[in-house]
Specification:
Layout: H1 5-15, E1 21-24, H2 29-38, H3 45-56, E2 65-70, H4 72-75, H5 85-91, E3 97-99, E4 104-106, E5 114-116, H6 122-132, E6 136-143, H7 154-174, E7 177-184, H8 192-212, E8 221-222, H9 239-253, E9 260-263, H10 270-283, E10 292-294, H11 298-308, H12 315-333, H13 339-346
The protein binds 2-O-methyl-1,6-di-O-phosphono-D-mannitol.
Length: 348
């Protein structure tokens, strides 16, 4: 048994506690700046701090969120009154998390595919983040589906699964619960059947590699993408079909001892992100051995970011918009979300 086993088990359980999800706010500076630039928000460290503070200080965020995933810059920042973000998160009853991958880079010999990097010095970086107060980590691998049917290649799936497993083993050795995130991208015109096939192969290989690296399943959280038709596919699957295909794929590949499933939203609409999660919890709750919840970034943040636009006077209302998405997704994790909640909001 690893030195941190008991602590890791308790942390993993708390991350997916009933009615709670994980707040992904670990955008690298490049991604954050891209989202800011699209709205005319200055792409400076100062504005990134203000925005992350807006999220973390949204009143009673901890009612819905077990912990935020931070980025290296963010974990070193403080609120404007000088409270380190990590301490603010702990005082609010949440668990600080940290993204530790260094990004998905072009994969040599595999045009159009990416492999996630970040294993160099990872043991030391984990020790530093643990000492700073982080208790869980995240690493995202991306798998691309192409129109011709050539991608993903087997080499890409295998390399990314291997990276995820090496990362997860190092995290458990150093006291951080690994969030294992293999994202099958939604970009493209592929059908839901093709997404199911690729997600199935990807998850199967991820768990082969996790076993090989002796990762403890009850001390990790899986962050998968949903099984869904590509964004530009003309035949979009309905909510129940997405929920059924996703759960079918998870049941086939994910050991029952995994502490929890926390989905990414992956560029789905914010309403679909809630509706799909809700349908899984309404229709399949009894068949799932793990809690099924969310670890969304865009599907929680976007309405707040769109409203804020860098204007300090808009912070309180932006926080309310963020909290609404957190609340709705918390309801979806309990199977208690309904489209009526959206209509009430729109005043329909
Ligand atoms: C897939 O992205 C993760 C979940 O976000 P969505 O719910 O918006 O899909 C998210 O945690 C992502 O890993 C970070 O935003 C990563 O950003 P970088 O900058 O590393 O691509």
């Amino acid at each position: 048994m690893g030195a941190y086993a008991q602590e890791l088990r308790a942390t993993a359980k708390a991350m997916v506690a009933r009615g709670k999800g994980i707040m992904a706010m670990d955008e690298s500076n490049g991604t954050c700046n891209k989202r800011f630039a699209a709205l005319g928000i200055p792409t400076t460290e100062e504005y990134r701090q203000v925005y992350r503070q807006l999220i973390l200080t949204a009143p009673n965020l901890s009612n819905y969120i077990s912990g935020p995933i931070l980025y290296d810059e963010t974990i070193r920042q403080s609120t404007t009154d000088g409270t380190p973000f990590v301490q603010f998160i702990q005082d609010a009853g949440m668990i600080p998390g940290i993204k530790v991958d260094t990004g998905a880079k072009d994969m040599a010999g595999h045009p159009g595919e990416k492999v996630t990097e970040g294993l160099d010095n990872l043991r030391d970086r984990i020790a530093e983040y643990y000492a700073m107060g982080a208790r869980f980590a995240k690493w995202r691998a991306v798998i691309t589906i192409d129109t011709a049917g050539d991608l993903p290649s087997w080499g890409c799936i295998e390399a990314n699964a291997h990276g995820l497993a090496r990362y997860a083993a190092l995290c458990q050795e150093g006291g951080l619960v690994p969030i294992v995130e293999p994202e099958v991208l939604i970009d493209g015109d592929h059908t839901i059947e093709r997404c199911l096939e690729v997600t199935d192969r990807t998850l199967a290989e991820v768990f082969v590699q996790l076993r090989n690296q002796r990762v403890e399943f009850d001390q990790m959280v899986l962050k998968p993408s949903m099984v869904i038709a590509g964004k530009t596919c003309l035949q979009q699957a309905g909510v129940d079909e997405v929920a059924a295909a996703t759960i079918q794929c998870l049941q086939k590949n994910v050991p029952a001892t995994v502490a929890g499933i926390a989905f990414l939203s992956g560029g789905q609409s914010i309403e679909n992100s809630s509706a799909h999660l809700n349908a899984m919890n309404v229709k399949f709750r009894d068949r799932c051995p793990w809690p099924v919840t969310f670890s969304y970034a865009r599907a929680i943040q976007q309405p707040a970011l769109d409203y804020w636009r860098g204007d300090s006077r808009r912070i309180p209302e932006a926080q309310q918009r963020l909290l609404r998405r957190a609340e709705f997704n918390s309801a979806a994790s309990l199977g208690q979300y309904s489209s009526k909640m959206e209509q009430a909001l729109a005043g329909v």
